[in-house]
Each structure stands twice: as C-alpha cells, then as structure tokens.
Amino acid sequence: MKVIFNIFSLLIIVFAIQGCSGNLMTKSKTGVVPPPASGKATIVFMRSSFVASAIGVELFEINNGELTFVGELPNGSKIAHQTTPGEKVYMAYGTAADFMIAKVIGNKTYYSIVRPNWGTGGFAPTPIRADGSSDYNMNSSEFEDWKSDTDLLEKKPDAREWFKKNKDKYKKIYNEYWSRFQKKTAAEKLERTMQVSDGI
C-alpha cells in the first residue's frame, strides 16, 4: 500500500512540474466574457474534464510561425482571447502539443473546448460548432455546462516576462509538433478547424 501511495504522489509531482509555468493567471473580477472590441474576434477557450486534470496547459496563438502567449488554462477555467480577423493557429501544450486552426471574422465570439487527447497524450483545442454538425456543438447540454462551470481567467502582468524567458522553448515545441500535425488527413484537419460560421 505504501508503494502505491508513493507512486501516486510521484505522479502528481511529475504532472505538476510538466505542465506548470507558474501562477500567471488571475480570476476575472466580473466573471463575464466581454463582447469583442470593434473589429476584433473573441475565442473562448474552455477546459472541463476530470481526466488529466492535474496537468497544466498553456495556450498560444501562432501567426506566420511567431508565438503569442494566450494564457494558462487549468481545469475548470476559461480564457476569452481577443484577436484580429483572419486565419490563425492555436497550440495547447500539456505533456505534448496539439493544434486548432481558426478562421474568424470581426465582431463575433467563438468557442473551443480544450480536451484531453489520448492519441497524443496532450490536449486538443477543438472548435465548438454553431450548427450542431459535430459532437462538440452549441446545442448540447455540455456546452451550457462548460460555460457556467468554468471560471474566467485573465493574464497577470508578469505573464509577459515569463513568456519572454520561455519563448524559445515553446517555439521548439511548436516546430516539432506542428510538423506532426501536418501529417493529418484533410478530414482530420477539418475537424480541428474553427469556421467563420461557428461565430455568434
């Protein structure tokens, strides 16, 4: 029994170290997702799964190979990320990296569920469809639960300095895993692509 307890304790420590980038987020005072600024799009990233809940996840936006830190996403939380219209790539990193392509327009709000991915051992940022055409859609009861049961987080001021120190590390992670993502089929990539029509 003692051996099992020691193994369990070690796993908890390993998971915490692997996914932890520090306490870079703070709970929003209002808890309300704001509408996008004029001409901007908002993507709300949510995480709500008991599976692998001890593993930390960091989110990044990639434009032309350049990374921007979106924030940490612990389980039971969400981030409202504002961005410019166009096509973007988003990377979630836990014990491995995974991606979502996003095609967004201004003055719309989009939703993504960041879920454990057994295939990669990481977390898959997955678009939530507005038209109910996938298992992850806005007509499901899970969608309402994800919105209501997650706390809205915001970046702390020192997140900028943390990312500056760690940018090269995550750029290498991006290069490695993005090349793997490119090997997915067209249908698999489509499942991971947020469409303009998913905005509300």
Structure summary:
The protein has 200 residues and is of the alpha/beta class. It has one domain (2-198): Immunoglobulin-like.
Question: What's the arrangement of secondary structure elements?
Answer:
Elements: H1 2-19, E1 25-27, E2 41-47, E3 58-63, E4 66-72, E5 77-83, E6 86-93, E7 97-104, E8 109-117, E9 122-127, H2 141-148, E10 151-155, H3 159-181, H4 186-191, E11 193-194
Parallel strand pairs: 2-8, 5-10, 7-11
Antiparallel strand pairs: 1-10, 2-5, 3-4, 3-6, 6-7, 8-9
Q: Could you tell me the strand content as a percent range?
A: 25-35%
- As residue ranges, the low-confidence spans are 1-21
Mean pLDDT: 89
The rounded Rg comes to: 17 Å
Note the gap between the termini: 52 Å
Biggest β-sheet: strands ordered side by side in the sheet: 1-10-5-2-8-9
What summary fits the major beta sheet? 6 strands, mixed
Name the overall outline: globular
Mind telling me the CATH class?
Answer: Mainly Beta
Q: Indicate the structural class.
A: alpha/beta
CATH architecture: Sandwich
Number of domains: 1
Order of helices and strands: HEEEEEEEEEHEHHE
Number of strands: 11
Report the CATH superfamily. Answer: Domain of unknown function DUF5300
CATH topology: Immunoglobulin-like
Give the helix level as a range of percent: 25-40%
- Note the total helix count: 4
Oligomer: single chain
